[in-house]
Please model this.
Amino acid sequence: MPQLDRIIVFSQIFWLFLIFSIFYAVLTHYFLPKFLKSLKIRKQVVDSNTKEVLAKTEKTLIKQSSLKKILIRDLEITSNLLTRYFGQLIKDKKKIDTLVIDQKIGFVILNTVKFCDLKLLNSIFVYPKSLKFKN
Model:
């Protein structure tokens, strides 16, 4: 049987190992370093982009939290001023036309609803006109 002849089998094994070794050497010497370099550069780009995004996110969160603190503090001051002066105004004058004040408060509430979030809205206390303000 010619398939089992030792002369044919050894030459086929020799050429198989020779071609495989050359192919392996070419791949590991030329293509593998380029491929690894490409993967390393991609990883570095992804890492630097991730660090940049995290830094910008942290800065944004710090700015947002400071802005919320300032807004809540100013809204508390405004609420206290409105409460004090409106209470004094009602005590001084029993019959007063509050249409202008109601319009301004309505305008502020409308803008707050449009441009603020729910936590900020919950920090504003609005008393209905039908209830008498008591101090």
The radius of gyration is 39 Å. The helical segments are 6-92, 99-115, 118-122.
